[in-house]
Fold this protein.
Amino acid sequence: MSKMRDTIITVYVDTQKIIQLDKKAPQDEIMRHILIGDNHNDLPKKDKFTSSIREKTKLAWVGAAMHILDSDQDFVIIKKIIVKKKKSMIKIYDSKRGAGSTHKDGYVGKAKKEDEEEYSIRFLVSSGGEEKVFKIDPKIRIV
């Protein structure tokens, strides 16, 4: 893990391939066209991803078209971060206070070392004039 405290979680999407899927495609099928990683040496993966971070860390979720040179009109926008626990350690800033409509910002509230939590990322993919929204379920772990 790097010494940097703040965390940027990036969802890299093969926009041209994922746009061919049905919006309700199974998670494993969606993950075939995604790499997700962060700036703390949690290397991008195509399967269940866990970001290892410190408590009281600021968070940012961003989307990126994986092959932007081949499809420079394609883009990925993080629409929503959905926490699954009522008392989640993940706190999301209101879009008026945070990033607006291009990505999402938040932070880790009270948490203990080794706490782990699954959440959902809902993201919009635009490719070839078509738009679809997909969802993935990564995790955050406190180290």
